[in-house]
Each structure stands twice: as C-alpha cells, then as structure tokens.
C-alpha cells in the first residue's frame, strides 16, 4: 500500500489512499470529507473547555461589571457605588498604598535579583547552592512565611528589634506603627519575590552570546562599559517582562497583608488603614460587610488598572502574537 | 579572561556579599524552626534558642486541630487541579496549534483575553454562584475555577506549534485515532513544557489563599494556608506563637525538601514558563 501526500489548495495536507496490487480492497474515505471531519474533531475536543471559559471567566466578568452598577434597595442600574467609592477616604488610602507597594517593591526586587544574578554569573564555585537558597522564599507558602516575619517584627520580643539593640538603635514599631507598617509589608514582598527576578535574570544573562564580550574585550572595553553597552541593552526584554509581571502582582497584593496585619477579628489593613491595598479593601467590603455590589465596583477599578498595565506591556514588548 | 592563578579578589568579595545575602534570606526559615521548639513562655522574653526543647506545639496541632486534614485537603486539591490542567490545557493548546478550522482564531483570542481578568474580580461572582449551587465548603467549590487555565493553554500552544505536522500525519496514515495521536504522539514531544506546567500549577494551588479562604466555611474543609491563617488570627487568647510556628514548619519544611530533590526540574520549569510566557 502506498500513500501519496499532496498539498491541498488552501493549505494543509491531504492523504489519498492508493491501493496497489495486494489483492485486497481498502475502504477509502473521500478527500473532501476530511476537512469537515477535522473541524468536527476540533469542536468535540473544545466544547467542554470553551463552555468552561464562558461560564467561569467571561460571564462572571460581565456579571461583576453589572453588579457594580446595582445597589441593595435600588432597582435598575445606578452609579451610587462609584460615587460612594470615590468619596471614601479609606478607598483612596488603599489606592495610594497599592501604588506605594508597586513603586517600592518592583524596582527593589528587580535590582536585588539583578545584583544576585550578576554575582552568581561572575563566580565559579557554589553557583547552584546560591541559586537554591535565594530562590527558596519564592516557592514556600506565603501564609507560613508571613507569620514568621510577623513574629520577627514583634515590637517587644521580636528578633529585629533585638538586633537593632546591638547597634543601640531604639526599638521600632514595625507592623504596629502606621508610618512603618507599609515598608514592613514591602520588605516581606521583596524578600519573597527577588528570587524569581534572580532566576529570570540568570536565564537572560545566559542567553547573551559570549562572542559579544570577547569582541568588546579585544577592543579594550572596561567591565563597566561592557555592562552598560552589552549586558544591559540585551537584558531589556527580561527587564520589561519582570517589570510588567511584578507590577501586576503587586497591584493584587493580598495574602501578605492579610496575614501580617489581620487582627484577631480577621480584618486586615491596619494600623489605621496604613497597609490596606485595593484587594484588602475589596475583601473587607465583600466578605466582612457582605456588600457585594460595592466590592464589585472596587474590582472593576482594579481591572481597569491592570488592563492599562497590560496594554502598555503589549505596546512596549511589541510582540506580535501569531494566531 | 580572568587570571586564575592569582588570587581572585573580586570573586572573593562577591562570595562574601552573597553569603551575607544568604544569611538574610535563609534566616526566617531557621528562626521558624527554632521557634517551633520553644514553649509559649519563651515568646514573652527574647531568647535565641529554645530554653529546652518543647514539643507541646506539635502535640497540640496533632491532637487538637484539623491540621493534617488541611494537609490532606491541600494535597488532594493541588493534585486534581494539576492533573486537570495538564490534560485540558495541553489538549486545547494542541487543537488550537494543529487544527485549522473556522473559529479557531476567535477561540484563541477569547482565551487570551481572559488572562487579563484578575482573580479578584471573579471571586465575588464565583462566590455567589457557589452559594446558589451549594458548592460552598466542598472540594469542587475550591477546585472548579482552576480546572482549566488560560496561561497554560497559551504555553502549551506555543510548544505544540513546534511539533512537525509530518509526524502527526504519519500517525494518521497508520490509522491512529485523533485522540490517540494527541496523547501518544504529541504529548511526549512537549514533555518539558508539561512538567513546567505541572510544577507552576501545583505550586500555585498549593499556596492559593484568596479563593479558598472565601469558599471554605468550616474548619475541616480549609486548605493548609487558609487553616494556618485562620487559626492564627482566630484565637481570642492572644497569638499562640509556638503552635503557629509548628504549623508553619510542617508546611514549609516538606516543601523545601521536595524542592531540593527536584530543584533542577523546578528551576528549569519556572524559567521556561517565565521566559516563554
């Protein structure tokens, strides 16, 4: 039996069965049906997943939008949630805090990640060991490590104030002090995220061809010049990627704040809303006060922020997706 | 090139700096383990080492809490969701990469668009849906939002595009069914992507907090992170530091051991998804 493949006019390949003298006859399917059969198979495979995406992602999104324009006791659509939201100083505080988390944590976790990656690339021994240890915080449970940090931050018996006392620095309030609480939460976020930056930077550094450095060396370029004119420009895609993913996840900060600052009632964001983020504000409204409509308005605002970041990402990355 | 015979001063300084960093990065873990062996009275005044090894925290979580039930819940949920993601994400990725049919582009763009929707926006409708369908406080309620994941679809499609069509056609000629071609021919070709997808899905679900804290209502149904978190904030008689540190240690140390065993795989997987995605 011989099979002849020939290109179909509109792309794709078709298989035609050509029985030769074996004495048996073969059932052959007509070529035209093959394309419809493929389409049918594709849709059979995709039915459940497409329904899933519609029911679990698309419809809930639309529902959240419409919910944000409703209010208890008011029939029809209303913008009262947004009016109240924009009047609430606690909301603006949480927006400000969210931006502060982004501005503080993203550059620092990337800078630390880059320094560690450059350091590890430069040396010859123990590379794997450094990589493992620096990466550990990223894979461990945020809840568990947040509680460890909370213990170390403790004002009276915590480790950090004890270490400060060695240098005769007065004990700090850390999470208990409205002025320091946001920085304290940010430290935990940076501690956990910088291992990821390091890993991605190491992959980026390894992708840079050695020849560039060798050529620069022949031309007598200094280490410093090589970094600014070879390493840094070629790391640009890595930097953009880390900046965008970092900003998006910092905008959604929740678990650290909830576990570092929640009081025994379970309400987080204190002291005096100084650590509350937009997601914490949403969570408290939706699942402590059970005002789902109002909380939906918060999530719509957050959605628009994240959408803006994503659009900027698409613009900056200039990556063309082939569909 | 570096003069290797001479003392590499720059390298030594880097080693020194990296060691300082290691002490800072690793210390919370050491502190956690040390604290888990302290008695509750050790937390009232500062001490580095436990005054004497005290296992009452471990005994307490063993006898008085649902800790191991939480552990079991987390394992079940992470395993099932990971298996589902591996199967469905790669099947969708495969179909979108390797079949030409009307509507393929529209479906792919729709799935990509859902990547932009933050989970925070969906939890409220999910919760209302779960309440209506009595899914609150069930395994299915915790698991259903993650069963198929848009990023995984995108990742698998990228890798499936690299499989030569000739290979699949050859299998078709041999009379293999379409489903079997995907499972037996296509899937083995993208093993690194599957292991990467499995690792990030498992880690994500193992550490998930926002949705499980919303959808679980009774103590035995909590996942590990949610259980630890609610135990720690829920106690009226002050924070039980020694018990909390025991819970954290038992949650973190096995993860570290697993990570050390599979660190090459895990590091490669996370790099792969980070760079490809």
Keywords for this entry:
heterodimer, A: 323 residues, mainly alpha, MetI-like fold, 2 domains, two-stranded antiparallel ribbon, 13 helices, disordered N terminus, disordered C terminus, B: 277 residues
How would you describe the overall organization of this protein?
Helices cover 68% and strands 4% of the residues of chain A. Chain A is mainly alpha-helical and 323 residues long. Chain A has 2 domains: 2-68, no CATH class; 86-317, Orthogonal Bundle (MetI-like fold), CATH 1.10.3720. Chain A has a two-stranded antiparallel sheet with strand order 1-2. In chain A, a hairpin with a 5-residue loop joins strand 1 and strand 2. Chain B starts with 8 loop residues before the first helix and ends with a helix. Chain B has a single domain (65-276), classed as MetI-like (MetI-like fold), CATH 1.10.3720. In chain B, helix 1 (9-36) packs across helix 13 and helix 3 crosses helix 12. Chain B is globular and about 75 Å long. The interface between A and B is large, with 98 and 99 residues.
The number of helical segments of chain B is 14
**Low confidence ranges of chain B:** none
CA radius of gyration of chain A:
28 Å
Per CATH, the class of the largest domain in chain A reads: Mainly Alpha
Q: Tell me, briefly, the overall form of chain A.
A: globular
CATH superfamily of the largest domain in chain A: MetI-like
Number of helices of chain A: 13
Strand order within the widest beta sheet of chain A: 1-2
**C-alpha end-to-end distance of chain B:** 35 Å
Shape of chain B: globular
Helical content class of chain A: 55-70%
- Beta percentage of chain B is under 5%
Q: What average pLDDT do the residues of chain B reach?
A: 89
Number of strands of chain A: 2
CATH architecture of the largest domain in chain A: Orthogonal Bundle
Measured by residues with Cβ under 8 Å of the partner chain's Cβ, the largest interface is: A-B, 98 and 99 residues
H and E string of chain A: EEHHHHHHHHHHHHH
Q: Which band does the percent of strand residues of chain A land in?
A: under 5%
Q: What is the level 1 CATH name of chain B?
A: Mainly Alpha
């Amino acid at each position: 039996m011989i099979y002849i493949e020939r290109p179909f006019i509109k792309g794709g390949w078709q298989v035609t069965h050509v029985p030769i003298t074996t004495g048996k006859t073969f059932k052959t399917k007509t070529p035209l049906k093959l394309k419809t059969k493929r389409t049918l198979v594709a849709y059979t495979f995709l039915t459940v997943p497409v329904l899933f995406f519609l029911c679990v992602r698309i419809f809930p999104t639309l529902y959240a939008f419409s919910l944000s324009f409703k209010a208890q006791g008011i029939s029809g659509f209303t913008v009262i949630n947004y009016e109240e939201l924009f009047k609430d100083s606690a909301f603006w505080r949480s927006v400000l805090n969210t931006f502060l988390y982004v501005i503080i944590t993203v550059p620092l976790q990337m800078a630390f990640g880059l320094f560690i990656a450059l350091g590890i690339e430069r040396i010859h021994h123990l590379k794997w060991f450094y990589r493992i240890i620096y990466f550990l915080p990223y894979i461990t449970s945020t809840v568990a490590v947040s509680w460890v940090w909370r213990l170390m931050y403790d004002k009276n018996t915590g480790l950090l104030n004890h270490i400060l006392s060695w240098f005769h620095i007065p004990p700090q309030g850390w999470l208990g002090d409205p002025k320091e609480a946001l920085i304290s939460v940010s430290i935990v976020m940076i501690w956990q995220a910088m291992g990821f930056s390091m890993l991605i930077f190491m992959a980026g550094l390894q992708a840079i061809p050695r020849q560039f450095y060798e050529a620069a060396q022949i031309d007598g370029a200094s280490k410093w010049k090589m970094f600014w004119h070879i390493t840094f420009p070629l790391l640009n895609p890595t930097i953009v990627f880390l900046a965008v993913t970092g900003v998006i996840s910092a905008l959604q900060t929740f678990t650290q704040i909830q576990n570092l600052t929640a009081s025994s009632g379970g309400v987080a964001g204190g002291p005096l809303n100084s650590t509350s983020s937009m997601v914490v504000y949403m969570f408290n409204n939706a699942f402590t006060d059970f005002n789902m409509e109002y909380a939906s308005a918060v999530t719509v605002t957050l959605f628009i922020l994240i959408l803006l970041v994503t659009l900027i990402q698409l613009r900056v990355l200039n990556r063309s997706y082939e569909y | 090139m570096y003069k290797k015979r001479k003392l590499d001063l720059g390298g030594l300084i880097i080693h020194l700096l990296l060691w300082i960093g290691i002490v800072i990065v690793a210390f919370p873990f050491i502190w956690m383990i040390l604290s888990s062996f302290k008695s509750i009275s050790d937390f009232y005044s500062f001490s580095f080492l436990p005054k004497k090894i005290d296992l009452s925290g471990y005994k307490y979580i063993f006898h008085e809490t649902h800790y191991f039930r939480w552990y079991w819940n987390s394992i079940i949920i992470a395993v099932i969701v990971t298996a589902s993601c591996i199967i469905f994400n790669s099947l969708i990725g495969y179909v979108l990469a390797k079949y030409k049919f009307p509507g393929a582009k529209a479906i792919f763009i729709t799935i990509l668009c859902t990547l932009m929707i933050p989970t925070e926006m969906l939890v409220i409708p999910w919760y209302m849906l779960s309440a209506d369908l009595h899914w609150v406080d069930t395994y299915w309620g915790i698991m259903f939002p993650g069963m198929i994941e848009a990023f995984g679809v995108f990742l698998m499609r990228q890798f499936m595009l690299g499989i030569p069509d000739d290979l699949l056609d050859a299998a078709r000629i041999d009379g293999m069914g379409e489903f079997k071609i995907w499972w037996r021919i296509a899937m083995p070709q993208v093993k690194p992507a599957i292991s990467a997808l499995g690792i990030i899905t498992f880690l994500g679900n193992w550490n998930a907090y926002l949705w499980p804290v919303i959808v679980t209502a009774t103590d035995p149904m909590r996942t590990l992170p949610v259980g630890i978190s609610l135990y720690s904030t829920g106690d009226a008689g002050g924070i039980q530091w020694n018990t909390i540190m025991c819970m954290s240690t038992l949650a973190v140390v096995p993860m570290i051991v697993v990570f050390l065993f599979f660190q090459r795989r895990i590091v490669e997987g996370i790099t792969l998804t980070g760079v490809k995605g």
